[in-house]
Amino acid sequence: MRGLSLVAWLLFVSPTLAQDFTGHGGPVGALDVAGDRLISGSFDTRAILWDLGSSSARNVTRLHDGNVTAVSFLPDGGFVTAGQDGRIAIWQPDGRAPDMVTPPGVAAIASLAVSPDGMRVAAGLWDGQVQVLERETGLLQSHQAHRERVTGLAFFQSGDLVSVGGDLRLVRWGAAFTPQASADLPDLPNGLAISEERVAVIFAEGALRLFSPEAELLPERFLTDRPLVSVSAHGGDLAAAAIDGTVWLLRSSDLFQRAVFQAAEGPVWALALDESQVFTAGAEATIRRWSLADGSPVGDAPEAVAPDYRDDSRGFEVWQACAVCHSLQPGDHARAGPSLHGIFGQPIASQPGYDYSEALRDLDLIWTPQTVAELFEYGPEAYTPGSRMPEQLIANPTDREALVAFMARAIAATPLEP
Ligand code: HEC
Questions:
Q1: Can you list the domains of the chain with their CATH numbers?
Q2: Is the whole-model pTM more than 0.85?
């Protein structure tokens, strides 16, 4: 499954806008937001934990074989990732390795939900099963909930689960996973979200339908004739997105349309909402944010991350894509990657105080302007296999030279701590 040819995602590093979260090396298919943090899961096999204020990456996790298909925050600040490999992993915010991980599954995981008390994690699989993980005991139970892929899953406040599947069924599950209510669906459901105890289901035919907890059809609305591919809710707000990149912002009580905007050229595979913002991600590796009030782009700060050192060179511009994850100040490992101060002449994985992956620690390499340039000529995946750093290439040799020359200037300008 790791075969997902990452080389196919030839990324061209470009300067970062504060509206954007740039760091993944492939399409992003999963998002969640809570407080001042965003979590994303990507085809690049990584999950990234982001700081909303600075748009910088705080943790990059790499565990899953194949893409990270679903992510969710836990009420205690940790998060859950699930993948094409069928595994569910529970992480601390700054965890390098998961606290708990389930064995490789029989099928890929398509959807994920966390119970309101944070103690149960449910995963919907491609083969129609729902797995429920009890965090306290580590017990994992499987239920054949649908005959085909489980496309959407969520918990009600009561702790009951609701799921929709490729068998065109919506089912509410009670304690001991007994069905409490169900409905036959008129078309293929592509996802669901719960908003104020109403179940919002999106369909391949472009409709959004609301259901009561008793599985009765409430208002429905045909948004488009294109497939809707993602849906998310926060309080009484709903967002749904189509395969052509259109996003609708709706009031969930009556499906009144607040705004509609174009978030991308291609599909928006993932959406997340908080009180004031909506985050979108899809075929482009970049995650964007928009105003929940009117769908306008959010973020006009000139730089996502305050630079340690700047000049008006091309190298500084290229460096902006690195700065979301790397500082050039000695010992500053507050972003997801190590500080790169003093990197030239140093062996790989030797910044004091940074917890490198085993893959990087096992490699034998000295960083020089030439090897750092080669790292982005061939990409971290090929040059430092197993690295947590997401795949990214700098295609243009002049840009690679400008980057390493800028790094050398910035390092020389910053004295080492006494
Ligand atoms: C999304 C976050 C992210 C981005 C963007 C990123 N890196 Fe990294 N980088 C990391 C992480 C995480 C590591 C540590 C990898 C590990 O431990 O496996 C790393 C490691 C490195 C290393 C090896 C450091 C050492 O001490 O051996 C270098 C060099 C490096 N990155 C350079 C860059 C440059 C230059 C850019 C921009 C072109 C960049 N990185 C962009 C996250 C990132």
A1: 19-291 (2.130.10.10), 314-413 (1.10.760.10)
A2: yes
